[in-house]
Amino acid sequence: MISSLQILPYLPLEHSEAEQFLWEQFRLHYGTKVSSQRLMELQERFKKERLDPLYSFFIALEGEEIVGCIALSPYDQRISSLRLRYTEGFVGEIGRCYVKESLQRQGIGSFLFKQALQRAQEIGYETLYLHTHPFLSGGFDFWKKRGFQALFKEEGEWQTIHMERGVED
User: Fold this and answer.
1) In a domain, 135, yes or no
2) What's the domain range around 56?
3) Is residue 158 part of a domain?
4) C-alpha pair distances (Å), 26 with each of 1, 88, 94, 165
5) How far apart are CA 95 and CA 31, in angstroms?
6) Does 90 reside within a domain?
7) What's the total number of domains in the chain?
8) Burial of 34 (0-12, 13-18, 19+ CB in 10 A)
9) pLDDT value at position 31?
10) Mean pLDDT in the chain?
């Protein structure tokens, strides 16, 4: 574990390099699976989400260097295969969880998730949702260890695994 690690809420004026870290990690993990048009759409979505008072984005700092990030946002009903699942209750979505590759498996992701979970409790979310993909090395196992259960897996190019857990679990 890194001794000087800090988990902080993202403040655009103080942590301007956080967005660069986020999109570098995104490209590293998704490569050419995401078109440049889709990447621009995701970047625009990130800008809009930041305006929502229920949106939280945390960064992990090792000294002055950003080494990880995670987002918590209200689930927005955009996934058609989940439309009937989340019709009641207050659901938060975990996303954009990245840790610098050379520092993975040192507890940074766990600390980021603990901060997001604490924020989810403060907001009053009842359920947390996320999705991952088999090509994201270690993602599925990481989330299972944090209490998420697989709901179902969509086949096709992305093989999206939808997962959830209670906030108080």
Assistant:
1) no
2) 5-130
3) no
4) 24, 31, 15, 24
5) 17
6) yes
7) 1
8) middle
9) 79
10) 88
